[in-house]
Design goal:
alpha/beta; about 25% strand; single chain; 10-stranded mixed beta sheet; 12 strands; Rossmann fold
């Protein structure tokens, strides 16, 4: 597992290319250089951002990773409809080919390439499986959207993004039924993340859903990009952003670390355990006043 810290880079912007570059630069790290990089996007469906990763965000991220010295770049995903169908609807394939990015369609994985995990004390009835490319990635970069989730997840950011690393019935496994029918869905979401850790998380909050989601919902202009190495920290800040924008009662009336998704993630060692461990890094002077407002929502 990668070493994480509580720093979360914060950029106020509606320019996705600027947001990608400034948020990563503000962390002052380079986990990519000399590595084979796997990008995990948010392509659950092909709905426009924040329903899915904006193509401009993905292109900017790929270009940035090449600039940072990546040896190779792959894009790996398992969507809700067939993955290639979603990518085709988004026009992703030619974009990635033009940028020398190889696509790994998790729908095409062999049964043996869905690696089973069944840690003691987890809430899954008989463990769960994760796509081997995720588990074995030399460098994993996760890029999600900042939004609410109306089907039990409450919010979907970097932790929830990785539900797309777990197989579905079309792969011969029925984990999604267990997940969506479970009274502890948020804890299950957190636990999916235990076998791996992204080396970098970049979150696009230019457009957000403050209610509804994950595919469609009540939209708001978040005008923010976040970057971090700690999934718990970046999701906590994302929830604080939703609070600052005005969201649904569950978001507004729940203390951030009382959300089971974050509480369980912290409990099993995926990142920070309290807001006091989070340090928001304003990428520029224009972001500083916004950082103060979001920090107030964290505490």
């Amino acid at each position: 597992m990668s070493v994480t810290d509580g720093r979360v880079a914060f950029v106020e912007t509606d320019d996705r290319s600027w947001g990608v570059n400034q948020s990563i630069d503000s962390l002052n790290i380079n986990p990519v250089k000399g590595k084979n990089v796997l990008i995990k996007p948010n392509f659950n469906t092909a709905d426009p951002a924040p329903g899915s990763t904006h193509n401009a965000t993905l292109v900017a991220l790929v270009q940035k990773l090449w600039d940072m010295g990546a040896v190779s770049i792959f894009l790996g995903e398992r969507s809700f409809p067939p993955t290639r169908q979603v990518m085709a609807q988004k026009g992703v394939v030619p974009l990635m080919e033009a940028l020398d990015v190889q696509i790994i369609d998790f729908d095409k994985l062999k049964t043996s390439d869905w690696v089973k995990f069944n840690p003691k004390g987890f809430h899954w009835k008989d463990g769960f499986r994760i796509a081997r490319p995720i588990v074995e990635a030399e460098c994993l970069v996760s890029t999600g959207c900042l939004k609410t989730h109306q089907f039990g997840g409450v919010f979907t950011m970097s932790l929830k993004l990785h539900v797309g690393t777990v197989p579905t019935t079309r792969h011969g496994f029925d984990y999604m039924t267990e997940l969506h029918m479970s009274p502890v869905q948020q804890q299950l979401i957190a636990e999916i993340n235990a076998p791996f850790a992204p080396d970098l998380v970049v979150m696009d909050g230019v457009d957000t859903f403050v209610d509804g989601g994950p595919a469609t919902g009540a939209r708001a202009q978040g005008n923010v990009f976040l970057a971090a190495t700690d999934r718990v920290a970046v999701d906590a800040v994302g929830v604080a952003v939703l609070k600052s924008l005005g969201s649904n009662p569950t978001i507004m009336n729940t203390k951030i670390f009382d959300h089971p998704q974050l509480a369980r993630a912290a409990e099993i060692g995926l990142g920070v355990t309290a807001a006091t461990e989070i340090h928001l890094v304003a990428a520029d002077e224009a972001s500083r006043s916004r950082v103060k407002k979001v920090t107030a929502q964290l505490n």
